[in-house]
Amino acid sequence: MEIGGVERSLIGLLHSLDYKKVTVDLFLHRHTGEFMSLIPKEVNLLPEDKYYATYSRPVKQLFKEGFIKIGVSRALAALRTKNEIKKKNLKENASSVTYSVLYTEPFLPSLEKYGNYDLAISFLMPHNIVLRKVKAKKKIGWIHTDYSTIYLNKEIEKPNWEPLDHIVSISKSVEKSFLSIFPELESKIIEIENILHPKIVKEQAKEKEVKPELQRNEDDAILFCSVGRISYAKNFDQIPFVCQKLVELGHNVKWYIIGDGGSTEEVEKNIQSCGMENHVFLLGKKANPYPYMLACDFYLQLSRYEGKAVTVREAQILGKKVIISDFPTAKSQLEDGVDGIIVPMENIAAAEAIDDFIRDKEKQNAIVQALKEGNYGNEEEVEKIYELLDI
Fold first, then answer.
1. Contact in structure between 194 and 12 (CB atoms under 8 Å)
2. Are residues 130 and 206 in the same domain?
3. Percentage helix, strand, coil, to 5, in the chain?
4. Which of 194-198, 236-240, 387-391 shows the lowest mean pLDDT across its residues?
5. What is the band of 34 on the pLDDT scale with cuts at 50, 70, 90?
6. What average pLDDT does the chain have?
7. Does residue 41 lie within any of the structural domains?
8. Are 151 and 93 a contacting pair, CB within 8 Å?
9. Closest CA to 131 of 120, 146, 142
10. Distance of CA 121 to the CA centre of its chain
């Protein structure tokens, strides 16, 4: 339960369920992460299993701990991923996790001892575990990403989707991109949006002061905030270049990035190469990012691709002026010019569009008013789960 949009979406779903209607078991491959404390007390957290807990631990560590077969399997999966990336000249390979699970699956124990469920939910791909290790009358799996922007091995991925009773898409755009890869699975698709509680978001935003970060001071800077895993998808490595252009255009911007991840070193390098040390700041992970989002003037999500970013709707709940890039599913995220703006993906064009928005106070005020009048909560989405259970 590390900090992330998918994990926060799961927390939203768990908090929306009526535990007078349903009994819920939750199986996590590791009992770690800042969001563990947010799991509702009504949820029965199943014991951590030592074999499943090997996921995300370094392969060398697995050999030291005696998990030889799983270690070898993980190493073979990593080699296959690396060769595929090199052969096809990829930035990343979305099938890497699937390979890891596929190769190690024979050495993972069955979870059928916990019972025969009415509904088993695989909330994050790959869905091998729910399909082959869990006993249930119905099985469903979630889509959280834009499949049109990533590489995956269709022949390897398809067997993890085809046997599911239903495939849950978080938006129409995500559904469309998924079906561009797997058109034959259209009949299985249902839509359930990421569930957010405005009350919870607003309450957590007031939990603590943000010191000394994101504070108003004598230089009267414009405060930007971006939240997410520092990864290729989130495009944080390009923020220093966008910020550099905004500074050239005359803006005293302070851009705060909340999160961590594998691309952190690249972001740091670009901050230095652009001379943005006094303008772009990496704050690391925050279990509660809402006070930081609340303190900023603008919330920005300039991603290369998204499914449907939870953070964008959270920022809208907090009444923030939101700026997102024109990733393929952007129009399902907000209405451009109404409750946020969409800017070009290219850095200079993005900066120029942001510059225009900063100077257009009338548009900003109209967007803030629209956010006040809008409803960005959607707890009623949980009813679709009850429909699957026939209750």
1. yes
2. no
3. 45, 15, 40
4. 194-198
5. confident
6. 92
7. yes
8. yes
9. 120
10. 18
Token representation of residue 70: 């799983």
Domain count for the chain = 2
The reply to whether 188 and 210 lie within a common domain is: no
Closest CA to 149 of 168, 173, 129, 131: 173
Alpha carbon distance, N-terminus to C-terminus of the chain: 29
**Nearby residues of 179 by Cβ (< 8 Å), 6 or more positions away:** 185, 186, 189
**Non-local CB neighbours of 50 within 8 Å, separated by 6+ positions:** none
Alpha carbons 81 and 153: distance in angstroms, whole number:
10
Distance between CA atoms of 55 and 217, rounded to whole angstroms? 44
Same domain for 229 and 249, yes or no, is: yes
Q: Given a cut of 70, is residue 298 above it in pLDDT?
A: yes
In the predicted model, what is the mean pLDDT of residues 51-58?
A: 91
Measured CA to CA, the distance from residue 1 to residue 376 in angstroms comes to 24
Q: Is the pLDDT of residue 45 over 80?
A: yes
CATH classification at residue 114 = 3.40.50.2000
19 with 114, same domain: the answer is: yes
Residue 218 pLDDT > 70, yes or no?
no
217 and 254, same domain (yes or no): yes
Greater confidence (191 vs 379) lies with: 191
Asked if 322 contacts 336 with a C-beta cutoff of 8 angstroms, the reply is no
Residues 348 and 238 reside in one and the same domain:
yes
Has residue 14 been placed in a domain? Answer: yes
What is the identity of the amino acid at 267? V
State which amino acid sits at residue 303: S
Alpha carbon separation from 23 to 42, 127, 301, 352, 381 (Å, rounded): 8, 22, 36, 52, 18
Name the nearest CA neighbour of 320 among 330, 334, 307: 334
At what angle are helices 310-317 and 198-205 packed, to 10 degrees? 70
Measuring CA to CA, which residue among 315, 284, 286, 288 is closest to residue 204? 288
Compute the distance between CA of residue 315 and CA of residue 331 in angstroms, rounded to an integer. 16
Contact call for residues 370 and 339 (beta carbons, < 8 A): yes
pLDDT of residue 8: 85
pTM over 0.70, yes/no: yes
72 belongs to a structural domain: no
Q: What is the mean pLDDT of residues 30-34?
A: 91
Residue 95 resides in a domain: no
Do 298 and 154 share a structural domain?
Answer: no
131 and 238 both lie in a single domain = no
Domain limits for position 268: 199-373
pLDDT for residue 197 is more than 80: no
